[in-house]
Specification:
Layout (H helix, E strand, L loop, with lengths): L4 E8 L3 E4 H4 L7 H8 L3 E4 L6 H16 L8 E5 L10 H9 L5 E5 L5 H14 L5 E9 L9 H4 L4 E9 L9 E9 L7 E3 L12 E3 L1 H23 L8 E4 L4 H11 L10 H4 L6 H11 L8 E8 L3 E8 L1
Parallel strand pairs: 4-5, 4-6, 11-12
Antiparallel strand pairs: 1-7, 2-3, 6-7, 8-13, 9-10, 12-13
Helix pairs in contact: 3-4, 7-8
Bound molecules: coenzyme A.
């Protein structure tokens, strides 16, 4: 049986674009280094009046419009973020208030760059058990606020943004659309390879991103290709049948290496990292929205979503659009 189906997608980006060349005027780096090592050419950075919730609300509104439904029918909002507006309440509740669909369920999920996959899976499970009929699943970040702008090994890699999907409980439609299978994992033993060095219960500060990039790179390729294989096995789909892979956009070289390991043509991989950099939980729904809106992903396509992030956490989900 298919899982919940995606009725619409939306995304939002901050107003300000920061190119590699502009960054190189502030940090000891160069456009050549960033482009060659990561594929990133620019990123969007939130202005002081732009927040995780404001980006999430804009992406949610765009997804609702795309789906052609009113906010009032949304009974569940699951928002993935590592950069909430406040420690509490959940940023999802701010989105709920802005949309005026108060009274349903709203909460945040923390799984960093895999957050959207975790949120999608949680929402799908809740819709299947009848907790709500329609959900908004959002990935939204202002990662620029937790970057150490003196650390060139991390600050050049990330950007801000939001993406959202409207999800509807499986309803016996005959077209087979919906989430076909999902696998999620975490390995808390890898904490020190990618983390933030602050938090309410430890330093009472927000902290900054710390990462051992080359080690994260190696784990990412292995973990992602393994979890993709698991989802293919679970769903009985072969790699050749996939129309599009929509990966977490961390580094163009990780995307290439993962696709190559699975024998998936690079032409089938949606790549937006050059424009957005790594937007953490926002990256998968942002890329999904871009590829739907530019006409690449069409109804009926078989789409693999995948991500890995701090924790480590990682996961993949196969969806018939
Ligand atoms: N500009 C210029 N030089 C830089 C730089 C920058 N922004 N950042 C690092 N360097 C330098 C390093 O200091 C190092 O110099 P050295 O050889 O003199 O010591 C050199 O570039 C190579 O650094 P290294 O870290 O080995 O490069 P790399 O090829 O592994 O690329 C990453 C670094 C971070 C781009 C890469 O490891 C990566 O993408 N890792 C995965 C990160 C990721 O996906 N994180 C998110 C997961 S959710």
């Amino acid at each position: 049986m298919s899982g919940s189906r995606i009725l619409g997608t939306g995304s939002a980006l901050p107003r300000r674009v920061v190119t590699n060349a502009e960054l190189a005027t502030r940090v000891d780096t160069s456009d050549e280094w960033i482009t060659a090592r990561t594929g990133i050419r620019q990123r969007y950075i939130a202005e002081p009046d732009e927040t995780t919730s404001s980006l999430a609300i804009a992406a949610a509104r765009a997804a609702l419009e795309d789906a052609g439904i009113e906010p009032g029918s949304i009974g569940l909002i699951v928002l993935a973020t590592a950069t909430p507006d406040q420690t509490f309440p959940a940023t999802a509740t701010k989105v709920q208030a802005a949309l005026g669909c108060n009274g349903g369920i709203a909460f945040d999920v923390a799984a960093v760059c895999s957050g959207f996959l975790y949120a999608l899976s949680v929402a799908d499970s809740m819709l299947k058990t009848g907790m709500a009929r329609r959900a908004l699943v959002i990935g939204a970040e202002t990662f620029s606020r937790i970057l150490d702008w003196e650390d060139r090994t991390t600050c050049v890699l990330f950007g801000d943004g939001a993406g959202a999907v409207v999800l509807e409980a499986p309803g016996g439609s005959a077209d087979g659309a919906g989430i076909l299978g999902t696998r999620l994992h975490a390995d808390g033993a890898q904490h020190d390879l990618l983390y933030v060095d602050g938090g309410p219960s430890t330093t009472q500060t927000t902290g900054h991103v710390r990462m051992r990039g080359p080690e994260v790179f190696r784990h990412a390729v292995v973990n992602l290709s393994d979890v993709l294989k698991e989802v293919l096995e679970e769903t009985g789909v072969s790699a050749e049948d996939i129309d599009w892979v929509v990966p977490h956009q961390a580094n163009a070289r990780i995307l290439d290496a993962t696709a190559r390991k699975l024998g998936i043509s690079p032409d089938k991989v949606v790549v937006t990292v050059q424009d957005h950099a790594n937007t953490s939980a926002a990256s998968v729904p942002l890329a999904l929205d871009c590829a739907r809106k530019d006409g690449r992903i069409k109804p009926g396509d078989l789409v693999m979503l995948e991500a890995m992030g701090g924790g480590f956490t990682w996961g993949a989900s196969l969806v018939r659009m």
